Amino acid sequence: MECTFVSVAPESDFPIQNLPFGVFSPSALADSPGRVGVAIGDQVLDLVALSQLGLFAHTAGLDGVSVFSKPYLNDFMALGRPVWRAVRQALQEFLSNDRHPVRQQVSGGNGAAVAIALSSVTMHLPAKIGDYTDFYASREHASNVGMMFRGKDNALMPNWTHLPVGYHGRASSIVASGTALHRPNGQRRPDPAKAPVFGPSARLDYELEMAFFVGTGNELGTPMTVEQAEAAMFGMVLMNDWSARDIQAWEYVPLGPFLGKNFGTTISPWVVTMDALEPFRVAQPTQDPEPLPYLLGAGAGGYDINLEVHIKPHECSDKSFLLTQSNLKYMYWALRQQLAHHAVSGCNMRPGDLCGTGTISGPTEGSFGSMLELSWSGQRDVALGDSGITRKFIEDRDVIKISGYCQGNGFRIGFGECVGQILPAKQVGPPKHA
Amino acid sequence: MECTFVSVAPESDFPIQNLPFGVFSPSALADSPGRVGVAIGDQVLDLVALSQLGLFAHTAGLDGVSVFSKPYLNDFMALGRPVWRAVRQALQEFLSNDRHPVRQQVSGGNGAAVAIALSSVTMHLPAKIGDYTDFYASREHASNVGMMFRGKDNALMPNWTHLPVGYHGRASSIVASGTALHRPNGQRRPDPAKAPVFGPSARLDYELEMAFFVGTGNELGTPMTVEQAEAAMFGMVLMNDWSARDIQAWEYVPLGPFLGKNFGTTISPWVVTMDALEPFRVAQPTQDPEPLPYLLGAGAGGYDINLEVHIKPHECSDKSFLLTQSNLKYMYWALRQQLAHHAVSGCNMRPGDLCGTGTISGPTEGSFGSMLELSWSGQRDVALGDSGITRKFIEDRDVIKISGYCQGNGFRIGFGECVGQILPAKQVGPPKHA
Fold first, then answer.
1. Are residues A53 and A145 in the same domain?
2. Are B48 and B100 part of one and the same domain?
3. In angstroms, what CA-CA distances link B81 with A4, B87, B211, B214?
4. How far apart are CA A218 and CA B428, in angstroms?
5. Which positions 263-282 of A are in contact with B (Cβ < 8 Å)?
6. Which of A108, A106, A120, A123 is nearest to A6 (CA)?
7. Tell me: the pLDDT tens digits for A126-146?
8. Is residue A307 part of a domain?
9. Do the Cβ atoms of B182 and A149 come within 8 Å?
10. What are phi and psi of B312, to 5 degrees?
């Protein structure tokens, strides 16, 4: 299948096989709430305009003008896989068929605003995220961090191989790629023999993650099977789960990470659908012991998605240096297992809820998905290429960029970019009664 | 000050000194999304109707018809304390002054629907809760639970006296009082020498908590001082943080409670404002060591709120038995400290965000706020009065009711009820590939 509507470079993240959904505003209206679009090559298709031209007139259950006029994908996500697939198919036919009736209208001058240059739009968060959950599904990452936080003998807890460990995160501070974040202030205890101190985090980190959006959800009190979970997932984004390791280490026992995480989480703005990722399914790592029956599913549970993290250090911000090369396929717990586990208590999942995978570290040092692991808790310098610059953790004004793609035969299913810069901490107002 | 608009019984939860805000529908329209009302005696004042009669015509910054027509309080919460206070004052004048011009209109027949019997309305969740956080702020509860989960030597972690420990909870499963919940399924490991098993929780518990709603929030990256936090709080509700202790114990290390909590959280529907609670401020327990300066505030940080938990056991559901008598004043970490700590990382708080206190246990056994503590982890039976019925944990079809009030001079500031029944667990669909 080839796109004949616009030309798509072979290395583009957004060929006709991809068609990720996002929320955009033309740059002149960057402050406007946005509408739903689909990326193709270096263009954005305006789904409101295409709805008005009748492209989805035969898609049962979809009022395109209404659903795509919203500045979030939640309403579309709630419609379910048959509608998602019908829209995907209608778009592929429109893009590949020169004689498509809507193409005729566009070339006849009715569709000037159907496609807009990607370079001229502002991207927003793709959904109103009701709840955000983060898992801890990479065995390599959990083992590495466990070793550093709790010692070798307690690295992987006894529950870890029996269930996908997860925790509730903060939804309000999830931002779209490109939003700068301030280094957090907080309590930390650099010297365990002394009292804790207050100030900006001295061990700020990135975490290479991906995340899936829940499409259709479940009623409170009604669990989902693994099969239902698989059918409920809408699509995926890249995610940087910024972490303040010193704040986290001091606060996290016994109720888990809190301020060490909630100052900001960055996601890429284009949601790549599970349908686009379907050809890239691969077996997940062998699970031993076998999980309980409610976590078992048929067929391949993993996805072969190449992932990279680059840093632009503040000392030379025109250059990027590779920090991590990893792959989603290393992840021990499959996405569908994460979601089925999440809902097994009866917890209700809603359209637009976001679930992060946890840091996706691989088996080798070059595939470690965080500075904590790369610098082994700050014990060694990480060299940035041959620049002479080194890092143990992220410094002010550093930029971290995550990218990812599935390699097809002559095309790539890419995720665009997940970029964020760390700004200096803001001062906390002087307390009046200190 | 006395209400002359309707008669208010001395033991009523809702005298003129209270005026809690909530979202209601007339029972005939129970499925409608609701609108904002205020409780007085056994009546609900319809704030849309009162806005239409001009009661808030002179309240700067408030479009009453628009703000109170919403089926949530978020828009009102966002307006800030000067508006909250102006509305409270306007309502008190209307209720206490027979010659109030709006009273004249009502008695002239223009306001038939201004007051509706509480018994004839359906109450909804008071707000769209964007994020929900739960703290762990009672020293007695943290010590009791810590002893049971980690042994005497690790009961209170080193961080506990330095910061208000908290964690992110699940917002989607917060329900209004009266909503029945299903017992959760999940993994637990009753025998630590054996593999975990799956099934309905066998150690289902309540937690006596209160929670505050954030009114005005803060921008991402910008912390709040303790003073700003105090000014930002809108009001409080009662909360039952249902907990499945066996699921929680198996899953919670290292990332905190997850499925052991996210199957449901019940709150009372009437939000008692911080302004109504102001006369009941008391000193909080002495904090030793002194917290870091960003957690210090002037004046009394605690609130004297009497709290009770009753159970209606399934064996005799027409009788209530007292389980717990406690008081918010026992809480070690003040509400304003919780909120200032939450935002110190730069985490953005939004109107309608909910923060729970954690279980409010007092120093004596009768004041323990959970079955876990009362039955000391199931080691002893808790007798329900002299009925001969006992409990270690909550059984199917039991009803738990939390109530609370501040005792004024001749009146009570009450919170209404926070009631929930536990229904049997739903079966999880048989996995196809077990």
1. no
2. yes
3. 58, 10, 18, 11
4. 13
5. 263-264
6. A106
7. 999 999 999 999 999 999 999
8. yes
9. no
10. -105, 100
Listed residues A122, A151, A180: the one ending a domain: A122
Residue B68: CB partners within 8 Å, gap ≥ 6? B35, B36, B47, B48, B51, B76
Q: Is the pLDDT of residue B433 over 50?
A: no
Subunit contact A167:B426, Cβ cutoff 8 A? no
Domain of residue B70, CATH code: 2.30.30.230
Residue A222's CATH number: 3.90.850.10
Give the 3-state secondary structure of residue A277. Answer: helix
Of B175, B293, B345, the CB nearest to A186: B345
Question: Other C-beta atoms within 10 Å of A33: how many?
Answer: 12
Residue A325 belongs to what H/E stretch?
Answer: strand A321-327
pLDDT one-digit tens code per residue, B9-53: 999 999 999 999 999 998 888 888 899 999 999 999 999 999 999
Neighbouring residues of B390: CB distance < 8 A, sequence distance ≥ 6: B381, B382, B383, B384
Catalytic residue among A141, A310, A341, A342: A141
Q: Which amino acid is at A174?
A: I
Query: What's the per-residue H, E or C state across B73-86?
Result: CHHHHCCCHHHHHH
Q: Which residue has the tokens 């006849």?
A: A108
Contact B172 A347 (CB under 8 A): yes
Domain residues for the domain of B53 are 21-122
Same domain, B174 and B310: yes
Taking contacts as CB-CB distances below 8 angstroms, the residues of chain B near A173 are 220, 346-348
Q: Are residues B25 and B83 in the same domain?
A: yes
Q: Is A310 an active-site residue? A: no
Contacts of B9 (CB under 8 A, 6+ apart): B41, B42
* Final residue belonging to a domain, choices A122, A145, A163: A122
Is residue A300 less than 8 Å (CB to CB) from chain B?
Answer: no
Per-residue confidence (pLDDT) for residue B84, from 0 to 100 = 98
Q: Give the separation between CA A356 and CA A238, rounded to whole angstroms.
A: 9
CA dihedral A224, A230, A232, A236 (to 10 degrees): 130
Residues 6+ apart with CB under 8 A from B330: B138, B140, B285, B360, B361, B362, B363, B367
Query: Is the domain of A32 the same as that of A70?
Result: yes
Measured CA to CA in angstroms, residue B67 lies from A99, A375, B355 at distances of 51, 52, 23
How many domains are contained in chain B? 2
Provide the whole-model pTM: 0.97
Phi/psi region, residue A88 (left: phi>0; alpha: psi -120 to 50; beta: rest), is alpha
Q: How confident is the model at residue A323 (pLDDT cuts 50, 70, 90)?
A: very high
**Is residue B109 exposed (0-12), middle (13-18) or buried (19+ Cβ within 10 Å)?**
exposed
A433 assigned to some structural domain: no
For this complex, say whether ipTM is above 0.90.
yes
The verdict on B45 and B154 lying in the same domain is no
Q: Based on the domain organization, do A94 and A172 belong to the same domain?
A: no
B window 149-168, beta carbon within 8 A of A: 149-150, 157, 159, 162-163, 165-168
**B386 neighbors B322 (Cβ within 8 angstroms):** no
Decide if B277 contacts A418 (C-beta within 8 A): no
For the record, the structure tokens of A280 come out as 């890239």
Distance CA B165, CA B397 (A): 33
**B89 and B154 part of one domain:** no
Angle at B316 between CA B310 and CA B318, to 5 degrees: 65
Residues in B 304-363 with any Cβ partner in A closer than 8 A: 341-342, 344-350, 353
Tallying the residues shown for chain B, one arrives at 434
**How far apart are the CA of B430 and the nearest CA of chain A, in angstroms?**
8
User: Which among B164, B412, B405 has a CA at the least distance from the CA of B301?
Assistant: B164
Residue A7 within any structural domain of the chain? no
Helix (H), strand (E) at residue A208: strand A208-214
Q: Is residue A352 part of a domain?
A: yes
Q: Are strands A265-267 and A174-176 parallel, antiparallel or unpaired?
A: parallel
